[in-house]
Amino acid sequence: MTKPQIWVAAFLILFIILFMIGRLTKEDEMPVKDFSGMSDSPMGQQSSEELTGEKLVMSFGCTNCHGADLAGTNMAPTLKGLKEFWSSRDNLINYLRNPNSFMDSDRFKVYREKYPNGIMPSYGNKDVKDLGKIADYLLTQ
Ligand code: HEC
C-alpha cells in the first residue's frame, strides 16, 4: 500500500468505529426515553367530574387546615355544623370563592384572633360545580 492509501484506510476504519460507537450510545439512551414516556400515563388524569364533595375536600387540601375529620385544628376552625350559620348552599359557595368579603362579620373577627396563622384561601379559580359539591357536602356535616 502507498502512503495515501494507508491514510484513506485509516480514516475509513476511524469512521466505522465512530459509527459503531454512535449506534451503541443510541441504544443506551432508548430505555431513558421509555421512562419519560411513562409520565403521561392516564393515572393523573382523573377528572374532578367523578369526585364527590368529600373527595374534593381532600383533593383541594381543605383537610390540611381544617383537619382530616373536619373537626378543626390549631390552624382553622371546625367545618361541622356549618348549616346553622351559612344556611344556604349559595352563601357557602360565595364564601369559598371570596372569603375576604366576609371578613367584617363578627364570626370572622373571632376567627382571626383565634387562628392568627391560618388564612382561608379563596377558591375563586375553581369550577363552581366542584364548589357546589363541596358546599352540599359541608352542609350535611
Ligand atoms: C391554609 C389553611 C386553610 C385551607 C387550605 C382551607 N381553609 Fe377554610 N379556613 C381557614 C381559616 C384560618 C378559617 C377561619 C377564617 C379566617 O381566619 O379567614 C377558615 C374558614 C373556613 C370556613 C368558614 C367556617 C365557619 O365557621 O364559618 C369554611 C366554610 C371553610 N374554611 C371551608 C374550607 C374549604 C371547603 C376548604 C377547601 C376547599 C378550605 N376551607 C381550605 C383555613 C383554611
Walk me through the structure.
The protein has 141 residues and is an all-alpha fold. The chain has a domain at 51-138: Cytochrome Bc1 Complex, Chain D, domain 2, CATH 1.10.760. It is built from seven helices and no strands. It has helices spanning 3-37, 53-59, 62-66, 83-86, 89-97, 106-114, 128-138. Helix 5 packs across helix 7 (128-138). It is rod-shaped and about 100 Å long. Heme C is lined by residues 57, 60-62, 64-66, 75-77, 79, 82, 85, 95-96, 99, 107-108, 111-112, 115, 118-121, 123, 134.
Number of H/I helices: 7
| Name of the CATH class of one domain | Mainly Alpha
Oligomer: single chain
Bound molecules: heme C
Number of strands: 0
Question: Into which percentage range does the β-strand content fall?
Answer: under 5%
Brief characterization of the structure:
This protein has 141 residues and is mainly α. The protein has helices at 3-37, 53-59, 62-66, 83-86, 89-97, 106-114, 128-138.
Topology:
Blueprint: H1 3-37, H2 53-59, H3 62-66, H4 83-86, H5 89-97, H6 106-114, H7 128-138
Record keyword descriptors for this entry.
7 helices, mainly alpha, 141 residues, Cytochrome Bc1 Complex, Chain D, domain 2, single chain, binds heme C
